[in-house]
Write a structure and sequence with these properties.
There is one protein chain. The protein is an alpha+beta fold and 215 residues long. It is 21% helix and 32% strand. It is built from five helices and eleven strands; from the N terminus they run E-E-H-H-H-E-E-E-E-E-H-E-E-E-H-E. The strands form three sheets. A five-stranded mixed beta sheet has the order 7-3-9-8-11. Strands 4, 5, 6 and 10 form a four-stranded antiparallel beta sheet that branches. A two-stranded antiparallel sheet has the order 1-2. The longest helix is centred in the middle third of the chain and has 13 residues. It is globular. The termini are far apart.
């Protein structure tokens, strides 16, 4: 079988000629993949030498999954207002922003749409019933924390109508429930909630927070 020489640079010893067949050799993908993942391959001098070549690319098993697309936690928030006031709850016992005011909110859970999730959160936190068709997306904040590099989509809904009178249904998580004037919001208001309420009054449907190009 004819051979050619593949010259591979070595940092200390100059160059090394490695005999390589000029005839194409077809390996089963599973066999080649298994070789590259074996202890023999990882410890062999040939593997380290070939890794220096720009023409060498590690094989990927046909059954190996591709990286999943980016996913983000989705926060669901309900903006209930009457006249020029908005309903806010005082957080407690959650280990996040306790002592701060926030609109009734929660997270989307697996197996539910964001409309179902928002209706569920309204029922769990306020004891009110909202039909999915009565929910309207008023604003979305793409919130980014530069310290942790985590980001979340915070979706704010309004309701055309609902049944029941809002009350504190989860007393272990809420210390107070109050209607606040939009012109005099509390100082200790969750940052993206303040931004969303301001943007909703402006008629702005989306904004970003914490990103270099935040708006």
């Amino acid at each position: 079988m004819p051979f050619a020489s593949v010259v591979v640079l070595r940092p200390r010893d100059g160059t090394l000629s490695i005999p390589a067949s000029t005839e194409p050799v077809l390996w089963p993908a599973t066999g080649a993949y298994a070789l590259q993942r074996s202890r023999f391959w990882e410890s062999s001098p040939l593997a380290s030498l070939l890794s220096l070549s720009p023409f060498f690319r590690p094989l990927r098993h046909a059954g190996e999954e591709k990286p999943l697309p980016y996913r983000s936690v989705i926060g669901l928030h309900l903006v209930l207002s009457k006249e020029d006031r908005v309903l806010l709850g005082l957080r407690k016992g959650t280990a996040w922003c306790d002592g701060w005011w926030h609109v009734p909110a929660g997270h989307l859970e697996g197996g539910e749409s964001f409309l179902v999730g928002m209706a569920r959160e309204a029922r769990e936190e306020l004891g009110i019933a909202i039909s999915e068709e009565d929910l309207v997306v008023a604003h979305t904040v793409h919130d980014h924390d530069p310290d942790t590099e985590e980001s979340r989509l915070q979706v704010f809904f309004t309701a055309r109508q609902y049944a029941g009178r809002p009350y504190i249904a989860e007393r272990d998580k809420c210390a107070d429930l109050r209607w606040w004037p939009l012109s005099a919001l509390p100082d200790k208001l969750v940052r993206y909630t303040r931004q969303a309420l301001i943007c909703i009054q402006r008629g702005q449907s989306a904004s970003t927070l914490g990103w270099p190009d935040a708006c």
